[in-house]
Design goal:
mainly beta, 5-stranded antiparallel beta sheet
């Protein structure tokens, strides 16, 4: 999506389309972009600022923090506002700012119960130590011998 400021009408212009999932640049992450970024934005210039208002939507595959299962969640922003400071360029690419708006909406602690198809979000019991039997026949490790901070003084006392 490129906006040519020289051809942008004073009353603004509507832009609609899709950006490829690669825009999110999530190579080494637990988050996978599974759809294009759909946008419908009204763009208007105000002196040195370009203002974009409208809607954004993209779908991601996340990993549930409780069950560790993957699930899909759509981030839909029906009324978003993006402001871009204009420099000397005649053509503006708002893709980085749009990308940031979507990424900021991703949950920090994703749960599959909040996904597009809500699932029963339970912790798998095999990950819980409290549910493990205690009679497994393994003896606990011996307590490490702790240094005696008074040991040197006790030795001086015993030399008399």
């Amino acid at each position: 999506m490129k906006i040519d400021l020289a051809n942008l009408p004073d009353e603004g212009q509507h832009f609609e389309g899709e950006l490829p999932p690669e825009i999110f640049d999530l190579q080494e992450s637990d988050i996978i972009s599974v759809s294009t970024l759909k946008y419908s934005l009204f763009t208007q210039r105000f002196d040195t600022v370009l203002l974009l208002t409208g809607s954004l939507e993209a779908t991601f595959e996340l990993t549930c923090m409780r069950s560790l299962h993957p699930f899909k969640q759509t981030i839909a922003m029906p009324s978003t506002v993006v402001s871009i400071e204009l420099g000397n360029d005649g053509i503006v690419d708002p893709a980085p700012q749009i990308r940031e708006e979507i990424l900021l909406e991703l949950p920090t602690n994703p749960r599959c119960e909040d996904g597009d198809t809500p699932e029963n979000c339970k912790i798998d019991p095999k990950y819980l130590a409290v549910d493990k039997p205690t009679d497994d026949g393994v003896e606990p490790a011996p307590e490490p011998e702790k240094p005696n901070p008074w040991g040197a003084l006790d030795e001086l006392d015993s030399q008399d």
